[in-house]
Design brief:
Order of helices and strands: HEHHHHEH
Strand order of the largest sheet: 1-2
Shape: elongated
Helix content: over 70%
Structural class: mainly alpha
Oligomer: single chain
């Protein structure tokens, strides 16, 4: 029994001691949040959302979705009085509207991805410079991408460098 207690204490100290040791010099960064969290990103995303092309796509998608919902409600409400042909026609219209909405959603996503990719390309050099300087200043031995982790404490400023990097990039881009 005495040996079991000693073994348990040894394992506990080894586990907790090594985890405390490992957290020193290790940090996590979320590159997506960085590229989309800067002032420049907010400006470009706002510009996209204010563009007539983007508004036309979103308005059309919303309009078609409203029409689809109305047809579905009509079908549900009048199902008992509609003929099989009328039901079939309404279902075909709903399916066509749904496909149109999907296509419009893909076009909207493509526009958003285009802006995101341009932001990444335009900011890559500044992001790398800021991250490298931060690694040196904080004596970070290992920097992990947040997408590669199952979980981590996003509120711990010693571990999660993302907010600090965004602030530094905003300052760098204002120069």
């Amino acid at each position: 029994m005495k040996n079991i207690k000693r073994l348990f204490i040894f394992i506990s100290l080894s586990t907790f001691g090594s985890s405390a040791f490992l957290s020193e010099g290790i940090a996590v960064i979320d590159y997506n949040a960085i590229f989309l969290g800067t002032d420049l990103a907010r400006e470009r995303i706002d510009d996209l959302r204010d563009s007539s092309d983007y508004k036309d796509l979103t308005d059309e998608a919303q309009s078609k979705d409203s029409e689809r919902i109305k047809l579905a409600e009509k079908l549900k409400k009048d199902e008992s009085t509609l003929s099989d042909t009328e039901k079939e026609d309404i279902l075909k219209k709903i399916q066509t509207l749904y496909q149109s909405i999907q296509l419009l959603s893909q076009q909207i996503q493509a526009k958003e991805q285009e802006v995101t990719q341009k932001l990444q390309a335009d900011q890559a050099e500044v992001v790398q410079k800021v991250v490298n300087e931060l690694i040196k200043a904080k004596k970070i031995k290992m920097l992990l991408n947040s997408q590669a982790l199952l979980a981590f404490d996003r509120t711990d400023e010693k571990v999660n460098l993302t907010p600090e990097v965004v602030d530094l990039i905003n300052k760098e881009q204002k120069k």
